[in-house]
Amino acid sequence: MPLDTATAAVAVDLVALTILDDELCVRVAKRQTPPFRDHWALPSRLISEEEDLFATAELELARATGLAELPVHHIEQLAAYGDPRRDPRGRVVSIAYLALVAGASTWTHTPSRRWAAVSDLLEQPAAASPLAFDHREILADGVARTRAKLEYTPLAGAFCPETFTVSELRHVYEVVWGVHLDPRNFHRKATSTPGFLAPTGSKTTRDGGRPAELYRTGDALTFHPPLTRHI
Amino acid sequence: MPLDTATAAVAVDLVALTILDDELCVRVAKRQTPPFRDHWALPSRLISEEEDLFATAELELARATGLAELPVHHIEQLAAYGDPRRDPRGRVVSIAYLALVAGASTWTHTPSRRWAAVSDLLEQPAAASPLAFDHREILADGVARTRAKLEYTPLAGAFCPETFTVSELRHVYEVVWGVHLDPRNFHRKATSTPGFLAPTGSKTTRDGGRPAELYRTGDALTFHPPLTRHI
DNA sequence: GCAAAAGTGTTAGAATTACACCCATGC
DNA sequence: GCATGGGTGTAATTCTAACACTTTTGC
């Protein structure tokens, strides 16, 4: 089996999500060159000889967000996309990574890079998508994965600063799932699920009203029974 | 961005699972050539110019099982593996696919291809694994995915023939999860969860005792609340 | 009849849901 | 005081878990 046959360009594409102004947003870059010139695209980089896929995704996250220091974040592999015609220039297999980041803000916006509302990008049918290549499908997969994992993992904390209140965490769920959750029942569920939250002992009044306990993300990988987003 | 830079060999690796003699088994092939000569390896094929990743996995499943006609099965993408040193011959990025198949049997065994018990392959520590490359890790990921998806999808049916009884389905859960389930509660849960089972109207006595209803896999993609494997 | 597996009923406990209600701060 | 959000109590309902019991076949 000679290894110089059947090669392809291999890229890492990034679905970097954050929450901005009560909206789930994704980092996109405007394409400067054909194909899909002036369309928005997910941040992407070809793999180098030394880096593994995960490291490549970390590097691209740092570059794409344009922040000197990466904020709290979570990265995991999403899926591989390898349709022979997904890039008109040739065979490109992309490994998509899903990143959830906190601390994004609109002042990282430039004419060619921004946080775009996911709902705006996905509402168009695939044929009229403002996104280049198959990036609409990749984004949809990333959003679906995120919605699902909030049910049974403490991942929502990745959208919050280092320490956060139960309401701030609930707000993440409400934005990502697009639902309203009962604050009292959510509080009880979050604080009583082992490994969901780690108490810090501090409090804050930044949300107004009575001071709220501050937590860190807990160490559970998954929990049972899960939270439910189904009514 | 010239596309002829940074290419890699791209392969599809297959974690094909089945249930044989009350054991979860995976299809493996003995390597005839270095590296890892005489080790077992997951079925694998380099992508061709025309096929997409899913089609490549289907082709490899047909080849690896050696069956003229593929039995009932389910295939989904598992993950991509791209460590630069995972193959000593050069950079190979593998997209692993997970296949669950029914109707496997020991008469497809040859000296170089067989269904091997997953427990035997995973019980050794990684350093002493009988599996080549990073295939132990890929197999472990595939088994973990399978165990998880049995909780909230009707996927267990993919291990059964076209039509099957509730006990046969329960047997799949017991083997894959390595637990004992109460037949009466399982029966109630399976038959009352919408989309889990589709009645056929037929019965069978092949398991002995009172005739049992035969079902097909239902059309639900996921269900809530899930089955639980936690005690 | 007897063994074996299918399937139903029942009950205690756990989890979810929908609220009423009190608490601690800023103004 | 009063508005605001934080947090606890509680009762109705639903889900789970354990197991007694009945049904329908083969032998």
Question: What does this 3D model show about the protein?
Answer:
- The structure is a homodimer of 231-residue chains.
- Chain A has 231 residues and is an alpha+beta fold.
- Chain A folds into two domains: 9-149, Nucleoside Triphosphate Pyrophosphohydrolase (Alpha-Beta Complex); 153-217, Winged helix-like DNA-binding domain superfamily/Winged helix DNA-binding domain (Arc Repressor Mutant, subunit A, Orthogonal Bundle), CATH 1.10.10.10.
- Chain A has helices at residues 53-65, 118-123, 135-152, 166-177, 183-192, and strands at 7-20, 23-30, 40-41, 44-46, 73-81, 92-101, 113-117, 197-204, 212-217.
- In chain A, strands 1, 2, 3, 4, 5, 6 and 7 form a seven-stranded mixed sheet that branches. The first copy, chain A, has a two-stranded antiparallel sheet with strand order 8-9.
- In chain A, a hairpin with a 2-residue loop joins strand 1 (7-20) and strand 2 (23-30).
- Chain A is elongated, with a radius of gyration of 19 Å.
- The termini of chain A are far apart.
- Chain A binds chain B through residues 1, 3-10, 33, 46-53, 77, 79-84, 87, 89-93, 95, 224-226, 228, 230, and chain B through 1, 3-10, 33, 46-53, 77, 79-84, 87, 89-93, 95, 224-226, 228, 230.
- Strand 1 (7-20) of chain A pairs antiparallel with strand 1 (7-20) of chain B.
- The structure holds a DNA duplex (27 and 27 nucleotides).
